[in-house]
Amino acid sequence: MIEQSLPNKKKVHRAWAMYDWANSAYNLVITSTIFPIYYISITRNEATADKVSFFGLEVVNSSLLNYALAFAYLVIAILSPILSSMADSRGNKKRYMQFFTLTGSIACMALYFFTGQRIELGILLSVVAAIGYCGSLVFYNAYLPEIAIKEEQDQLSAKGFAYGYIGCVLLQLICLVFVFKYKDWFGQTEDWGPRISFFLVGLWWIGWSIIPFTVLPKPAVPVINSTKAKSVVRGSFSALRKVSKQVQTMPKLKVYLAAFFFYSMGVQTVMLAAAVFGSKEVKKLVDGEWVNMGAQDLIPAILLIQLVAILGAMLMARLSAKIGNFKVLMLNVFIWVVICCLAYYTRTNYEFYGIATLVGIVMGGIQSLSRSTYAKLIPKDTMDNTSYFSFYDVMEKLSIVLGMFSFAFIEQITGNMRNAILALISFFVIGFVLLLFTNKAPLQRRKS
């Protein structure tokens, strides 16, 4: 292991955590706040029912964005097992990590040129940025067991999370200066603030990444050759097939994964579509007139979700220690059903803030608890934890694909985003029922 020969372990650990500081800005600014809000604002057109032209196709603006995200995560789901195998093969992690980082950060910087007249450019760049972000994380995570012993990994992982949260919030605050003071301080037009924010995300990402790329150790073995690379690709999918067959012999794990797949469709879709929903469907009262919520209203709500999510994760972890994982998961899923029902009738900004607070409470908890529950259900004597978690990761990505696609499709054919919420409710209800069966299912299938 590289860890045993690290000359300055603390320096390497700090450098590794700094990558979280660098790339988390993408997740907050591009995925959750400024980008979706800006996109809806430049494509809103009541005369055409908010439809935009994408390479000649007429599509509802929010549906197009959700279709794009679904496609991006489909690509990621296909690439994920291959990249995981490449990381496990101990090839040049740093080079692959640099490639995806450079790809994602350049795509973010190029979003500066995204305007209402360049819809295709903005959508395509957002897809490339998502692939770059998720692809780089595969190799970032793969570094963890090489630079830290097991006793250090939890603490180092938490350190990365903390660095990431501080970094993304800091850049978000910097971006807000440009978004809100575009005219008073910089004498620019309104669309300049968001576009310069996208450029800053890419610059922040690649700039701070220089630290981990300089300090993280070189691979322990030479880069894999082309023949080896082909076997890695074949092996990645054969490993997933092997895990799939093993899961069939474990009823509890099999039913749990089905439950996870359905409620994850709902959770991930809510997280990715929250800002778009607020932009299109929620109003605020200004001088006696109901108007659409703007960035100054939506960004604080998304930041509120991030803050409450940390407390929610801690609360759910303590609760699970007292009453068990499955009971807490079922409680979380039930709350998500309530959230979706309330969201269907949400009309005002204050109602939206209330929903955001409730989302924060269960968002962090259900994600962390889902993964830890899965870890407890996989065979304790397995020597292939990586393949099991690669299988879990692919299922999560595919749930995002189907969740976002169904949300976009229902809005597209009905012309109302609220109708798509009904689909989310059904996902959570199915997940809840499957969790009930999971709790009663045996660990292993009885041999005949």
Mean pLDDT: 85
* CATH fold annotation of the largest domain: Growth Hormone, Chain: A
The level-1 CATH class of the largest domain: Mainly Alpha
- Low-confidence segments, ≥5 residues, pLDDT <50? none
Q: Look at the structure and name the CATH superfamily of the largest domain.
A: MFS general substrate transporter like domains
Report how far the terminal alpha carbons are from each other: 43 Å
Q: Quick gist of this model?
A:
This protein is mostly helical. 78% of the residues lie in helices and 4% in strands. It has two domains: 1-224, Growth Hormone, Chain: A; 240-448, Growth Hormone, Chain: A (Up-down Bundle), CATH 1.20.1250.20.
Account of the 3D structure:
78% of the residues lie in helices and 4% in strands. It is mainly alpha-helical and 448 residues long. The strands form 2 sheets. Strands 1-2 form a two-stranded antiparallel ribbon. The chain has a two-stranded antiparallel ribbon with strand order 3-4. α4 packs antiparallel against α7 and α10 (295-323) packs parallel to α12. The protein is globular and about 65 Å long. The two termini are 43 Å apart. 47% of the residues are buried. The model has no long low-confidence stretch (mean pLDDT 85).
